Amino acid sequence: MTVISLGTPHIRMRPAPEIDRPQSPFLIDKFGRRAVDLRVSLTDRCNLRCSYCMPADGLDWMPDSDRLTDTEIVRLVGIAVRQLGIRDVRFTGGEPLLRRGLESIVALVAKLRPRPRISLSTNGIGLAPRARRLAAAGLDRVNVSLDTLRPDRYLRITRRDRLFDVLAGLAAAKAAGLYPVKLNTVLLRGVNDDEAPSLLAFAMAEGYELRFIEQMPLDAQHNWDRTTMVEARETLRNLRAHFRLTANSKARGSAPAEVWLVDGGPGKVGVIASVTHPFCGDCNRTRLTADGQLRSCLFSDTETDLRSLLRRGCDDDEIARLWRTPCGPRLPDTVSTRQAFCSPAGR
């Protein structure tokens, strides 16, 4: 496990209240936060090689036998929804569209009661021919990564010439009713940081919701450098030179994005200051990796092996009990300079 130190300010943590977590039917951590949002990685594989995420080559993918089967995924999601109070399920990767059984997984999760909201985080490649099928299966909405509108820059950032496919996927998602279609953009200094206004203009024209996300230390090669990260305040300053931004009066709650109305609305833009202003204090997420490991925090170095419980024949109640127990290692109010981020290495 490689440790990456962040240059974030140190903020005092609040004391943890006494909570008998295993006695609660829900996922409540030692800081009193309840997890209602489950992120499920369907694969560690990806068909892009984004420079801020992974090297151009030389990656070792997990063996197929280590990856959860479709049936195992649906069973674990069912436990989370029926017994642990999960209300939102987001399928991620790697690239989740590389999962051949994705439509079937979505359809089975959509049949759960109470029915969770189901979303997908994708790079958009391969979305165009599958958007309608996914919507018919029960997918509610999509988040699509789009860091640039220029083909040459897209090739530089992702090492693949596939911008046209992503734009086609966005249009198909909108046509299929996967609303709202959200765009996730990472700005890199000296690469695409001048495109913030044009990306917002594009999103406004097409009816998409755009969110700018500060670059986080998630790269597999551990080359994250804060000097290349464009801070949220810089992005807002750049946008304000072209648009009138008004703070959204709606309570942010556990959402990571600070939302601004654009030119009076109804269009809006979100800015996620994941490094300069972490939102750990309001986190409501829990994560399941492609090989069945439970993570209570994206940057936690602690995992709980749910796959082995499934394959040993444990029943749903046993799995639910264990799932509740490790809901403690999540980070408290924020991350400090003396706390390290541990790259999840493709999780």
From TrEMBL:
One of its GO terms (biological process) is Mo-molybdopterin cofactor biosynthetic process. GTP binds at R39, R90, S121, K182, R285, T286, R287. GO terms for molecular function: 4 iron, 4 sulfur cluster binding; cyclic pyranopterin monophosphate synthase activity; GTP 3',8'-cyclase activity; GTP binding; metal ion binding; S-adenosyl-L-methionine binding. It is an enzyme of class 4 (lyase). Residues 30-248 form the Radical SAM core domain. InterPro entries: Aldolase_TIM, Elp3/MiaA/NifB-like_rSAM, MoaA, MoaA-like, MoaA_NifB_PqqE_Fe-S-bd_CS, MoaA_twitch, MoCo_biosynth_MoaA/MoaC, rSAM. [4Fe-4S] cluster 2 binds at C280, C283, C297. [4Fe-4S] cluster 1 binds at C46, C50, C53. Keywords: 4Fe-4S, GTP-binding, Iron, Iron-sulfur, Lyase, Metal-binding, Molybdenum cofactor biosynthesis, Nucleotide-binding, S-adenosyl-L-methionine. Binds 2 [4Fe-4S] clusters. Binds 1 [4Fe-4S] cluster coordinated with 3 cysteines and an exchangeable S-adenosyl-L-methionine and 1 [4Fe-4S] cluster coordinated with 3 cysteines and the GTP-derived substrate. CDD domains: Radical_SAM (cd01335), Twitch_MoaA (cd21117). The keyword 4Fe-4S applies. S-adenosyl-L-methionine binds at Y52, G94, S145, M216. It catalyses: GTP + AH2 + S-adenosyl-L-methionine = (8S)-3',8-cyclo-7,8-dihydroguanosine 5'-triphosphate + 5'-deoxyadenosine + L-methionine + A + H(+). Its EC number is 4.1.99.22. It holds the Pfam family Mob_synth_C. Pathway: Cofactor biosynthesis; molybdopterin biosynthesis. The keyword DNA damage does not apply. PROSITE patterns: MOAA_NIFB_PQQE, RADICAL_SAM. Its cofactor is [4Fe-4S] cluster. Catalyzes the cyclization of GTP to (8S)-3',8-cyclo-7,8-dihydroguanosine 5'-triphosphate. Belongs to the radical SAM superfamily. MoaA family. Monomer and homodimer. This is GTP 3',8-cyclase. It comes from Mycobacterium attenuatum. The gene is moaA2_2.
